[in-house]
Design brief:
Structural class: alpha+beta
Radius of gyration: 17 Å
Bound molecules: zinc ion
Order of helices and strands: EEEEHEEE
Largest sheet: 4 strands, antiparallel
Number of helices: 1
Distance between the termini: 38 Å
Oligomer: single chain
Number of strands: 7
Number of domains: 2
Length: 108
């Protein structure tokens, strides 16, 4: 890959994972969209960040105003903390903890 050359490896919504040709025949990976641009030497690290971002975008995050309502108390889930699928080891689905009653609301 030539210096300065850019290749889109993955794309989900606003998020892109790029491979960029760097000096001395090196390649760096870059994650852009929905946050500050980040560079990685390692593809696995970049992919992890990429997956985290598009999932947050797709499933909503704590800053998402369209968070829905709690299944238990009916209040808005806005401000609740979101956990990605498998983020804490054994949760098959992502979930939001209701900021009002602490009930788990699964998000697919
Ligand atoms: Zn609740």
């Amino acid at each position: 890959m030539k210096f300065g050359e850019t290749q889109i490896i993955r794309k989900e919504g606003e998020i892109r994972l790029l491979k960029i040709g760097a000096k001395y025949d090196r390649e760096v990976f870059c994650v852009i969209g929905n946050g500050s641009t980040k560079h990685y030497e390692d593809y696995e690290d970049a992919l992890e960040e990429f997956n985290l971002r598009w999932m947050k975008e797709k499933f909503g995050s704590s800053s998402n105003s369209n968070a829905g309502e709690c299944i238990n108390c009916g209040y808005s889930l806005q401000g609740g903390s979101y956990t990605l699928p498998w983020e804490d080891g054994d949760n098959e689905y992502g979930y939001v903890i209701c900021p009002h009653c602490r009930c788990k609301n699964e998000r697919y």
